[in-house]
Amino acid sequence: MKPQLEINQLQYRWPGGERTLTVPKLTLAAGERAMLRGASGSGKSTLLNLVSGVLAPDQGQLSLLGKELSQLSAGQRDRLRADAMGIVFQQFNLLPFLSVRENILLPLKFAPERRKRVKDGHAEVHRLLAAMELDAKLCDRKVTELSVGQQQRVAVARALIGSPALILADEPTSALDPVARDRFMDLLAAQCREAGSALLLVSHDPDLARVVDSEYLLSVHDQGTEVLPC
Ligand SMILES: Nc1ncnc2c1ncn2[C@@H]1O[C@H](COP(=O)(O)OP(=O)(O)OP(=O)(O)O)[C@@H](O)[C@H]1O
């Protein structure tokens, strides 16, 4: 089976041109969970932005579900990403003027394959809320009326809807205390397992290593950062 995500000999030059992020090899099989670890400023968010398509690499290969992104048109790339990836951003990026239900359903508007997998959107929202231990009564509330921890779990439900092949999560536990963090990571890992989604997790926190299969370290040197398995 093809990996969900495969990166080979990737290079990205940060603006200014002096420092480079290099990824010799990073692969993620279906259902596999990996963590990117590195000091502040080492390039963790930059690597997630390369995978999610916010940034483009200067060299090397990056393929999703066996498709090399540089060989697709911009429209094909956007569609593949919307279908293949659910993203949990550091600041959640929930839309404040929408309800919890509308936020969770939003990715389906742009992802036809994910939409096909969801037979009944409202039932799926309720299932995901229950799976993330959120009260169904929150469904019609504005997301701004929720606590930070609740918003974090809504952001995960939104990433998971329609079972994308890959979930990207940037520091998803940074606002949580250790007990809430462990519970949240167990819920996230269980839901990825149930959906068959691979997980690429960014964190400073070495305690999250217990829920992943592999770890990559962002190692900083004079010319930039190299991403190596550890
Ligand atoms: N637009 C930009 N132009 C120039 N340099 C940038 C730009 N964005 C980020 N950088 C630099 O790239 C490096 C990596 O930043 P990045 O945000 O990817 O690190 P990080 O590991 O995610 O950090 P943190 O853990 O603090 O979130 C930093 O040195 C940062 O100053």
TrEMBL record:
A GO term for molecular function: transmembrane transporter activity
Keywords annotated in UniProt: ATP-binding, Nucleotide-binding, Transport
Keyword Transmembrane: no
Domain ABC transporter: 5-230
Coiled-coil regions, chain positions: none
GO cellular component: plasma membrane
Pfam family, one: ABC_tran
InterPro entries recorded: AAA+_ATPase (IPR003593), ABC_transporter-like_ATP-bd (IPR003439), ABC_transporter-like_CS (IPR017871), ABC_transpr_LolD-like (IPR015854), MacB-like_ATP-bd (IPR017911), P-loop_NTPase (IPR027417)
Lineage: superkingdom: Bacteria
Protein name, UniProt field: Putative ABC transport system ATP-binding protein
Lineage per the UniProt record: Bacteria, Pseudomonadati, Pseudomonadota, Gammaproteobacteria, Alteromonadales
